[in-house]
C-alpha cells in the first residue's frame, strides 16, 4: 500500500487552509503554531500506518494516538513520562486545561483571550479534523466527503459570532478543498492501469504516471463553478420572508412564523469586552431624564443561560396603525407618556429588534413588517433591519412609588417563577438568607439589589475560571459585569417567589445637548425586571457601576416624581439610592473612587494596574514569517537536494551520477520530458535540440554518465567533478533562458523536483525502517 505522500500533503494543506476560518475566535495568533504542528504530526502518523498496510480503522487510531503524544509534549510535558508519554499527572493536567478552556469560552465572548486551555482546545479540534480528513481523503480515497469536517471548522465561528467569516478565509479554505479534489482526481485517473503514452506523455525514471492535466482541468472548472453557484445563488434569490417566497402568499389567518436571532447575551458580552466607541444610534426624548433602551426580554433560564421564548408571529401581533398591545400588569400605577425619536447608524447590521424605552405603546417606522410580542412587548421584524432607519416610539413609563410597590403583594405569573433543579442548593440558600425577615416582595427585591451594590465589584476581567459553575464562581469572586448581575438577581428573585426576567439593550448614553443622546457599542447593558401586580414590570439595577453601567442620577428608576426632580430620597431599607454611574465613570463600589480595583482604562476595559502596554504585533510578525517560510519550503527542498547530491561526491563516478540526477531535476523544473527508458545519449540529443546553447555541457554530462553506467567495474571514469558541477550550472542557465516567464518563476519558487526529492527521501526513510525491523 502506498503512503501517498502527495495526497497526504494536500489533505494537510486543505486542513491548514480551512483552519484559517477559526481566526475570529481568538484575540492573538498563539493558537496557529500548535495547530500547524498537530496537522503535521497527524499526517505523518497516517503515512506510517499506510506504510505498514494496517487496517483502515487504525489510520484514525494511530493519528489520534500521535496527536495525544503531541499534545502531551506541548502542554503537559512537565508532568509526562519522558516529556511526551502520558501519565496520571499529565492526564490530570490535560483535563484541567480543557476545563479551563471550556470555562473561558463560557465566560468570554469571541474573540477569546489567550490561555493554555484555549490553545489546547483549538489544537485538539484542528488535530481531530486533520485526522478525519486524512482518513477519508487519503486512506478511504473519498475526497469529496472530506469537505464535511472542513466545513465543521467554519460552523464554529458562524455559530458564536454575529459577523460572518471573512471572504478571504472562505476563499482560502475553498481553495484548499478544491486542490484536494483535484489531487485525488489525478491520483484516481492515473491509477486505472498502464497508460498508453503519446508524445505528451512520458514515463519518468521513478515511474511517474500519465499526465492527467485534461482531467484535472475539467475538475477545476466543475469545482469553481459549483462554488460560484453556491455563493452567488443565495445572494441573488429572494428569501422566504413574512410575505412568502417572492413576496407571494403572505400570512393568512392562523399563519405563524417562528423568529430566531443571535444569542442576546453572547452579543452583549462581545460588545462589552470589546468596549468599542462606534456609535450605534442617537435619540431625542421628551423625558426629563434619559431612559434605558430595551431590545430583548429573556424569560427562560435553562440552568446555563437566559433566553427568550420562541416568538410565533400571528397577524394579531403585527403593529397596525402604529398601535402596540398594552403592557401586562401595568393597570393601576401612574405613568408618564414619553416620545423618543431614534436614528440608527447605517453601519449597524442585523438589528431586527428595536431598542425602545419600556413600555412602548405606539411605533412609527417606515418599511418592513414590524411586530410586537404580546407578552414582552419586544418590537421586531421578520423581513427588515433597523440599520440606517429613523423611527419614533411613544412609551408609557410607569411611575410607581415605594409605597405602591410595598402594597403590590405577590403574583403568580406563569413561567416567570421557574427555577431549574440543576441550580446549586447553596445559591437557593443564599437568596433566602439575603431576604430573610423581609415580608413583602418589594423589600425582598430591594434586599437583593442592595446585596449586589454593596458587596460586589464591577469588572470586565473576571477571575480565572474555576471548576465550579459560572453562577457559583460569580457569587464567590463577587466581581463581574452587568450580564452576571442581572441574570443572578433575576434568578434569585424567582427563588424567593418574585416573577423576574432579564432585559438586554442599551444604557442611556452620552448627552449631546437639547435632550439628544448618543449611544455607543460600549453602552450595551443588561438589567433585571421584576413583576409587581398593578405596576407591571419594574426595572432594578444591581450592577455597581463601570464602563457599561447606566447613566443614573443617584435615584432608583422607580423613584417618586419629587425625587426625579432632584430631591434626594430618604435612606431606608426600602429605597436605597443607586450609586452615581455612567459609561465613563469607572467602578464605584466599596473602597471608594481611589481604590485601584475600581479604576478602569477606557480603551481596554482592564483595571489600570492590569492595563496592557502597546508593543510590536508579535502575533502578526510570527504569522507573516510562518507564511513566508511555508512558501519557501519547495525552494529550500530543491536547493537542499542539490547540495546533498554534490556533498556525497568522492570520485568521478559519483560526480557523474550527481550531475545526471541534477540534470534530471533541472529538466523537471523547466517542464521538459524525461524518460528512464532512454539512454543518456538519447536524452542529451532531445534536450540539445530544444536548448542548443547547452549542447556542449550536455554532451560532457551524458558522456560521463555513459561511462559510469556502462563501463566494466573498476574501469576509471575520466573527468573532473568540478567541471561537471559547472556544466550543470551552465545547463540550468540555458534552460532558464529558453523558457517563458511562467516556467522560470515556477522553477525558482515551486520547483516540481522538490516534491520528487521529498518523495524519494520518504521512500528511503521507510525502506531503512523496514530493513531495521526485519533484522
Automatic annotation (TrEMBL):
Regions that span the bilayer: 31-49, 61-85, 118-136, 222-240, 618-638
Q: Is Membrane there in the keyword field?
A: yes
Q: Which residue ranges does the record annotate as region Disordered?
A: 541-613
Pfam families xref list: DUF4129, TgpA_N, Transglut_core
Alphabetically list the UniProt keywords.
Answer: Membrane, Transmembrane, Transmembrane helix
Compositional bias (Basic and acidic residues): 594-613
Chain ranges of the Transglutaminase-like domain: 474-544
- Please, which domain of life does this record's source organism belong to? Bacteria
Q: List the InterPro entries.
A: Bact_TGase-like, Papain-like_cys_pep_sf, TgpA-like_C, TgpA_N, Transglutaminase-like
What's the name of the protein? Answer: DUF3488 and transglutaminase-like domain-containing protein
Q: Which organism is it from?
A: Actinocorallia longicatena
Amino acid at each position: 500500500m502506498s503512503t501517498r505522500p502527495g495526497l497526504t500533503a494536500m489533505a494537510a494543506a486543505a486542513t491548514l487552509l480551512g483552519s484559517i476560518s477559526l481566526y475570529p475566535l481568538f484575540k492573538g495568533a498563539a493558537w496557529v503554531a500548535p495547530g500547524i504542528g498537530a496537522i503535521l504530526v497527524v499526517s505523518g502518523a497516517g503515512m506510517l500506518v499506510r506504510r505498514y498496510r494496517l487496517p483502515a480503522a487504525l489510520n484514525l487510531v494511530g493519528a489520534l494516538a500521535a496527536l495525544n503524544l503531541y499534545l502531551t509534549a506541548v502542554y503537559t510535558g512537565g508532568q509526562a513520562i519522558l516529556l511526551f508519554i502520558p501519565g496520571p499527572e499529565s492526564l490530570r493536567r490535560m483535563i484541567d486545561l480543557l476545563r479551563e478552556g471550556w470555562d473561558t469560552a463560557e465566560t468570554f465572548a469571541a474573540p477569546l483571550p489567550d490561555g493554555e486551555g484555549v490553545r489546547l482546545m483549538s489544537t485538539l479540534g484542528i488535530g481531530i479534523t486533520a485526522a478525519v480528513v486524512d482518513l477519508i481523503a487519503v486512506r478511504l480515497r473519498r475526497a469529496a466527503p472530506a469537505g464535511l469536517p472542513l466545513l465543521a471548522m467554519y460552523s464554529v465561528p458562524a455559530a458564536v459570532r454575529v459577523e460572518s467569516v471573512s471572504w478571504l478565509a472562505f476563499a482560502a479554505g475553498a481553495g484548499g478543498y478544491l486542490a484536494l479534489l483535484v489531487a485525488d482526481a489525478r491520483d484516481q485517473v492515473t491509477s486505472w492501469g498502464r497508460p498508453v503514452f503519446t508524445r505528451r506523455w512520458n514515463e519518468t525514471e521513478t515511474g511517474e504516471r500519465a499526465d492527467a492535466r485534461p482531467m484535472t482541468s475539467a475538475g477545476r472548472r466543475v469545482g469553481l463553478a459549483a462554488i460560484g453557484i453556491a455563493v452567488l445563488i443565495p445572494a441573488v434569490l429572494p428569501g422566504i420572508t413574512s410575505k412568502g417566497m417572492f413576496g407571494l402568499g403572505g400570512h393568512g389567518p392562523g399563519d405563524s412564523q417562528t423568529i430566531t436571532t443571535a444569542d442576546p447575551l453572547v452579543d452583549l458580552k462581545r460588545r462589552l469586552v470589546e468596549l468599542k466607541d462606534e456609535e450605534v444610534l442617537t435619540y431625542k426624548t421628551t423625558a426629563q431624564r434619559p431612559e434605558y433602551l430595551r431590545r430583548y426580554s429573556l424569560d427562560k433560564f435553562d440552568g446555563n443561560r437566559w433566553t427568550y421564548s420562541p416568538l410565533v408571529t400571528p397577524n394579531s401581533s403585527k403593529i397596525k396603525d402604529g398601535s402596540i398591545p398594552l403592557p401586562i400588569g401595568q393597570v393601576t400605577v401612574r405613568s408618564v407618556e414619553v416620545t423618543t425619536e431614534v436614528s440608527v447608524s447605517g453601519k449597524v447590521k442585523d438589528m431586527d429588534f428595536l431598542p425602545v424605552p419600556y413600555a412602548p405603546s405606539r411605533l412609527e417606522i417606515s418599511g418592513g413588517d414590524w411586530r410586537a410580542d404580546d407578552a414582552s412587548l419586544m418590537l421586531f421584524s421578520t423581513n427588515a433591519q433597523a440599520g440606517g432607519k429613523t423611527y419614533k416610539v411613544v412609551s408609557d413609563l410607569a411611575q410607581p412609588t415605594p409605597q405602591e410597590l410595598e402594597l403590590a403583594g405577590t403574583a403568580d405569573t406563569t413561567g416567570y417563577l421557574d427555577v431549574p433543579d440543576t441550580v446549586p442548593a447553596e445559591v437557593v440558600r443564599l437568596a433566602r438568607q439575603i431576604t430573610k425577615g423581609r415580608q413583602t416582595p418589594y423589600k425582598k427585591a430591594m434586599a437583593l439589589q442592595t446585596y449586589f451594590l454593596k458587596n460586589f465589584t464591577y469588572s470586565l476581567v473576571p477571575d480565572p475560571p474555576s471548576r465550579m459553575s459560572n453562577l457559583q464562581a460569580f457569587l464567590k469572586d463577587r466581581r463581574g459585569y452587568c450580564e452576571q448581575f442581572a441574570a443572578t438577581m433575576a434568578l434569585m428573585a424567582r427563588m424567593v417567589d418574585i416573577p423576574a426576567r432579564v432585559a438586554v439593550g442599551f444604557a442611556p448614553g452620552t448627552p449631546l445637548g437639547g435632550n439628544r443622546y448618543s449611544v455607543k457599542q460600549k453602552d450595551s447593558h443588561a438589567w433585571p425586571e421584576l413583576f409587581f401586580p398593578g405596576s407591571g414590570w419594574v426595572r432594578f439595577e444591581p450592577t455597581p457601576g463601570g464602563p457599561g453601567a447606566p447613566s443614573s442620577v443617584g435615584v432608583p428608576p422607580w423613584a417618586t416624581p419629587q425625587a426625579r426632580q432632584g430631591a434626594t430620597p430618604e435612606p431606608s431599607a426600602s429605597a436605597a439610592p443607586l450609586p452615581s454611574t455612567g459609561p465613563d465613570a469607572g467602578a464605584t463600589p466599596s473602597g471608594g473612587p481611589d481604590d485601584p480595583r475600581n479604576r478602569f482604562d477606557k480603551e481596554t476595559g482592564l483595571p489600570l494596574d492590569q492595563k496592557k502596554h502597546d508593543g510590536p504585533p508579535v502575533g502578526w510578525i510570527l504569522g507573516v514569517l510562518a507564511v513566508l517560510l511555508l512558501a519557501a519550503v519547495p525552494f529550500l527542498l530543491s536547493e537542499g537536494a542539490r547540495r546533498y547530491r554534490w556533498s556525497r561526491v568522492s570520485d568521478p563516478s559519483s560526480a557523474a551520477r550527481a550531475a545526471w540526477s541534477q540534470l534530471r531535476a533541472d529538466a523537471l523544473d523547466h517542464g521538459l520530458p524525461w524518460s528512464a527508458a532512454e539512454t543518456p545519449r538519447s536524452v542529451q540529443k532531445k534536450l540539445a535540440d530544444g536548448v542548443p546553447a547547452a549542447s556542449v555541457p550536455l554532451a560532457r554530462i551524458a558522456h560521463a554518465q555513459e561511462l559510469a553506467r556502462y563501463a566494466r567495474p573498476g574501469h576509471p571514469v575520466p573527468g573532473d567533478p568540478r567541471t561537471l558541477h559547472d556544466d550543470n550550472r551552465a545547463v540550468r542557465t540555458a534552460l532558464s533562458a529558453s523558457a517563458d516567464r511562467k516556467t522560470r518563476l515556477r522553477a525558482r519558487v515551486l520547483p516540481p523536483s522538490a516534491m520528487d526529492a521529498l518523495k524519494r527521501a520518504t521512500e528511503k526513510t521507510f525502506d531503512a525502517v523496514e530493513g531495521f525491523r526485519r533484522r
